[in-house]
């Protein structure tokens, strides 16, 4: 007989230190720099050597994956992970075997271990020859969790830890270029040019023209960035993990999530050779003279061109029209280049666009064959990870995708329904109309934060597409497991961590993919991660789907999880953002009530097992 536990927010948690003092940590207060608080580069003070010597556990590092195991002398370690959970891991690119972290009895002590995959550490194993070195630092327990530091290795520089310590950073600046799309309006500029309109429709990107939000809701974005953990590419909520999936992208934006990888060679770095190649490519594909193009590249100071140059050169005055090919093709490329830089691949400059994107538009018949949706998701994952760093003050990506996903899954009253929206016709993000504040509202952010801290799994819309899927069946691509890519950016896609979003019972997932390199510091210039990418695996994605035995059982209720999932999750996660010691008594009362309710459920389950 299989038994599952229904999860509640606030539930009977392992003993987690609430304050730094409870964790036995001395932390220097941050210095104030320009623009407000500047969080410290190290949030922990120096530990006394004797304290480390007194810790009974021994730190052991797996040379393949760099996981920290805390072994108590004379004890057998078992984290409760089902032994049959792991599928043939040879199918997961760059995914070596990894031992599980323990339920360490040393969790009450602060354990500080510097680990180098491929190197050695105190009590650690040597590395396999040829293995890449990955440096990270593990410190446990953190105030508010995690108790076990094996999963969230960079948490000391995460904004959530700073918030728990009552050191708020300003609301993130959200860079969104959605309003600029209308500055180049195809309908008004080219009312009679069927050829140009046909090229844009054939690209498969035309659905984004009218669905992109003109502004970003700063408080909504920030409230969910706080919960994003880049080690897993998931949001950590009181009851488990959620994330934006490939299926979400397909429904929300109505663009392809399968197809060719979006990657271009030879334009990663600025060299004389790459500069020369870029000038020739722009001249050939946009139909301008080499002299004009060289002048533009010089003005842009890099492998970029200015958006204002694209508009002034190819966006005609109202009423005029491109005359004949190839001019229409050049205009289509210029428009798509401008359009992509305002939507899927928005960057911080706002005024320039990478020439590398133009290479993807060389053959206009191939534009519609790229996996634009998967690429946009990889780009969003990377920028969400960067925005979690405590000293980062802004975020840029296609934030319409993140906002639309939030509105679809969380019943928080953050958006209103659009009466003009029609299923099967419009991208899903068109279903919602944003609610905006004229300025960043800290009170609103606090309200969203507290609501999410108290959120119950039954209050989540786990599967908003259940009534609009073709034949009611989840597309096979939704179960892809591996890595996704944009140019040189590769991000892991951990489907097994979000099984409840597909109607399955959530169980303890496998450890995250192995990193080739990891530097997740407190600022943007100290954030760099590298994963492996097997292009053949992506092109043969049907051979790399999550196996049925790993998906497990279909859930009677969408929010079901295995009995061992929640205790494991609460040990490795920081699932509540607001420190109860800084909050009112209502939050504490709610937490206590939920704890008691869960405890009654557990006693009933124990009685049923006897």
UniProtKB/TrEMBL annotation:
Top-level lineage group: Eukaryota
PANTHER family, alphabetized: PROTEIN MAIN-LIKE 2, PROTEIN MAINTENANCE OF MERISTEMS-LIKE
Name of this protein: Aminotransferase-like plant mobile domain-containing protein
Compositionally biased intervals (Low complexity): 97-107
Domain Aminotransferase-like plant mobile per the UniProt entry, residue ranges: 204-569
Gene Ontology process terms (BP): meristem maintenance
Composition-biased stretches (Basic and acidic residues): 45-96
Region (Disordered): 15-131
């Amino acid at each position: 007989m299989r038994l599952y536990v229904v999860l509640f927010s606030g539930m009977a948690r392992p003993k987690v230190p609430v304050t730094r003092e409870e964790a036995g940590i001395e932390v220097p207060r941050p210095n104030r720099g320009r623009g407000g608080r500047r969080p410290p580069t190290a949030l922990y003070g120096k530990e006394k050597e004797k304290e480390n010597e007194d810790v009974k556990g021994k730190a052991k590092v797996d040379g393949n994956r760099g996981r920290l195991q805390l072994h108590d002398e004379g004890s057998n370690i078992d984290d409760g992970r089902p032994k049959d959970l792991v599928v043939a891991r040879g199918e997961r690119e760059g995914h070596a075997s990894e031992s599980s972290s323990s339920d360490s009895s040393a969790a009450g002590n602060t354990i500080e271990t510097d680990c180098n995959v491929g190197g050695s550490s105190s009590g650690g194993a040597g590395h396999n020859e040829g293995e890449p070195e990955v440096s990270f630092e593990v410190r446990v327990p953190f105030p508010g969790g995690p108790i076990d530091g094996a999963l969230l290795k960079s948490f000391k520089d995460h904004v959530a830890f700073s918030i728990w310590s009552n050191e708020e950073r300003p609301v993130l600046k959200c860079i969104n270029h959605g309003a600029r799309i209308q500055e180049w309006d195809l309908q008004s500029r080219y009312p009679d040019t069927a050829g140009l309109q046909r090229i844009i429709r054939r690209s498969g990107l035309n659905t984004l023209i009218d669905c992109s939000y003109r502004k970003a809701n700063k408080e909504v974005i920030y409230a969910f960035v706080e919960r994003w953990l880049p080690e897993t590419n998931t949001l950590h909520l009181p009851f488990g993990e959620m994330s934006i999936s490939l299926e979400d992208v397909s429904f929300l934006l109505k663009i392809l999530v399968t197809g060719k990888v979006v990657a271009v060679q030879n334009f990663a770095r600025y060299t004389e050779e790459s500069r020369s190649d870029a000038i020739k490519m722009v001249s050939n594909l946009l139909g301008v003279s080499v002299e004009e193009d060289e002048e533009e590249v010089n003005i842009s100071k890099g492998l970029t061109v200015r958006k204002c140059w694209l508009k002034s050169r190819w966006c005609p005055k109202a009423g005029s029209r491109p005359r004949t090919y190839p001019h229409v093709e050049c205009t289509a490329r210029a428009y798509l280049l401008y359009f992509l830089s305002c939507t899927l691949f928005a960057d911080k400059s706002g005024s320039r666009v990478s020439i590398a994107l133009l290479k993807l538009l060389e053959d206009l018949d191939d534009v519609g064959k790229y996996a634009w949706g998967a690429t946009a998701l990889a780009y969003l994952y990377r920028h969400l990870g960067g925005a979690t760093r405590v000293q980062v003050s802004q975020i840029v990506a296609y934030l319409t995708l993140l906002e639309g996903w939030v509105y679809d899954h969380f019943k928080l009253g953050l958006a209103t329904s659009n009466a003009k929206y029609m299923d099967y016709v419009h991208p899903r993000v068109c279903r919602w109309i944003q609610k905006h504040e004229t300025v960043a509202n800290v009170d609103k952010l606090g309200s969203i934060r507290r609501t999410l801290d108290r959120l119950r799994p039954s209050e989540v819309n786990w599967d908003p597409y259940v009534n609009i899927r073709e034949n009611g069946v989840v597309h096979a691509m939704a179960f892809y497991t591996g890595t996704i890519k944009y140019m040189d950016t590769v991000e892991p896609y951990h489907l097994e961590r979000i099984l409840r979003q597909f109607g399955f019972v959530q169980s303890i997932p496998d450890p995250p993919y192995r990193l080739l390199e990891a530097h997740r510091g407190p600022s943007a210039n100290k954030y760099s991660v590298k994963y492996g990418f097997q292009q053949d695996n992506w092109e043969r994605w049907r051979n790399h789907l999550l196996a049925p035995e790993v998906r497990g059982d279909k859930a009677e209720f969408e929010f079901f999880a295995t009995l061992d999932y929640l205790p494991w999750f609460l040990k490795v996660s920081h699932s509540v953002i607001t420190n109860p010691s800084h909050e009112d008594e209502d939050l504490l009362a709610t937490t206590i009530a939920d704890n008691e309710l869960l405890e009654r459920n557990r006693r009933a389950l124990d009685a049923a097992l006897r």
